[in-house]
Amino acid sequence: MSSVAEPCAELLPLHLPMVEGKIPAGFPSPADDFLVKRLDLNELLITHPQATFFWRVAGESMREAGIFNNDILVVNRALMPRHGCIVVAQVDGDFTVKRLHKRSGRVKLVPANPTFPEITFREGQQLIICGVVIASIKQFSA
Amino acid sequence: MYALVDGNNFYVSCERVFRPALQGRPVIVLSNNDGCAISRSNEAKELGIAMGAPWFQIQQDPSLRDAGILALSANFCLYGDMSNRMMSIAAGLGPEQEIYSIDESFVGVAGVRDLTRRARTVRDRILQWTGLPCGIGIGATKTLAKLANHVAKSADRRPGSYPAEFARVANLAELPASDLDAVLAATKLGEVWGIGRRIGAQLQAEGLHSALDVARLDAAMVRRRWSVVLERTVRELQGQPCIAFEDVAPAKKEIACTRSFGRPITALHDLVEAVSEFAARAAEKLRRQASNAGQVLVFVHTSPFRRQDRQYSKSITVPLRRPTADTALLTASAVRGLHAIYQPGYKLAKAGVMLLDLQDAQVEQGELDLDDPGADRGRLMAAVDAINVRHGRGAVKLASVGTAGSARRWTMRQDLRTPDYTTRWSDLPQARA
User: What is the pLDDT of residues A35-55, one digit of tens each?
Assistant: First the structure.
């Protein structure tokens, strides 16, 4: 047997849980077990930061969808535009916000205000969708 | 194995995302002070407008008068944000990324499976998510990746220049040797990264014309006859990686902030404002790389293009007692230097501040302290930097930079700027409802 002490190979580490937070004296906070992050609007609205852009609404054609003049649209370019989605699209070199209608091979952009016309596309004309509107932000003067 | 992801006509493409009416038209973006063309749409390129062509020359060219060219001032707030987005998506292509410039990044792709298909997905994703078209080139070395990127763009823009399968995404690394040779043979040697006009002319004088000719040179001979730099290029064309991957940019050895003025400046107090601003900006960059500067260089000069003006060009280097990154100390030295070189009666066109003799801020040189070293203002500088990040550049500044903002007499000319679409709430693009 060697006279020099060797580390014992069979020793296993014993894991002890570490308590989060200081306990100088008194009671630990009952909230310690439930600590999570505060609510964050960015987390709610922005799932694809690289693909999220904002547009300002100009006009009245989407009122019945709850989108009003001067609102800020949160637009996600990464989402697949589906029938019934509200989208920002390019029409005649300008941006427009409308609801997308895509059924049985027919595509059109539909307003949410009966006093405005639909936008239809003829054979060969291209509809370019910039992104899907996932929220509209309305700010009140305070 | 490397990929190079590179935005097409980047500045123009950024502008087109927010103004679709610019599609299909000849559009150029002008450098600071609306000086020369630094980005051109394909339509503008086809009109023969060269990179760097001066704007006044384009305006006066009779053959371009009816071409309908639209020129825009550079909007770096917009381009910087769009670049961040593109780089972030490109990073998904592989485990490491080196951002090379505002519109180019190398991505290390060793070990990535199904690489070509993945590169196409990333290219399409960048276009879908940001509206920016780009090209992706893949090769065994950085030089080959850059060449592949050139192939991808040419095959897209000029069908027939290379096989159609290389359009937009070109993976040279998966080609058999003979096919790679064919691509190199079809590429002029001037297109190779690292072969500039001078070396290119010398090689052509020797009878070499294509990238393949250069790849076939003996590397050791090239090192003897030319330089180790060209030898590296040759080796890289042969498939040997020689150029290091830098995912963290090396700290700069000197930091400069220089600007040409929007109009000639003669008054000392305007120069003091300008030099103070340059010193502050350089100091910010200095702190960002955790360095201190030992010397401050200041220069002013008149415009060499305005030969009718009396010419004046002077610079001075002010050594600092102790290396520092303190904006106030650097600015004070810069302004002192300016006072020493300023002469009235000259129409000055440009000024600048350079911070020299940079040292790691962590390493402090001991010295004999004969007077009070003064309070360490490192925490003050850090607080100022944090406020300026949160509330915008110049939220907290020295009084000597002036309070008139962009109305200061020396600020650059930017008559044709588009809104800050993605960085200012008041500048959002409009969607018609």
Answer: 778 888 998 999 999 999 999
CATH number of B255-360+376-402: 3.30.1490.100
Rounded CA-CA distance B248/B287 in Å is: 16
State pLDDT tens for residues B180-197.
999 999 999 999 998 988
Question: Which pTM value belongs to this model?
Answer: 0.79
Question: What count of CB pairs under 8 Å joins A to B?
Answer: 75
Q: Is the model's pLDDT at B254 over the cut of 50?
A: yes
Helix (H) or strand (E) segment spanning residue A20: none
Q: How many CA atoms lie within 13 A of A40 on its CB side?
A: 7
Structural domains present in chain A: 47-137 (2.10.109.10)
Tell me which architecture the domain covering B2-174 has in CATH: 2-Layer Sandwich (3.30)
Provide the pLDDT confidence category of residue B216 given band limits of 50, 70 and 90.
Answer: very high
Q: Which helix (H) or strand (E) holds A95?
A: strand A94-103
Q: Do B432 and A90 touch (CB under 8 A)?
A: no
Q: What is the ipTM of this complex?
A: 0.78
Distance from CA of A35 to the nearest CA of B (A): 27
CA nearest to A68 within chain B: B433
Q: Which residues contact B113 (CB under 8 A, 6 or more apart)?
A: none
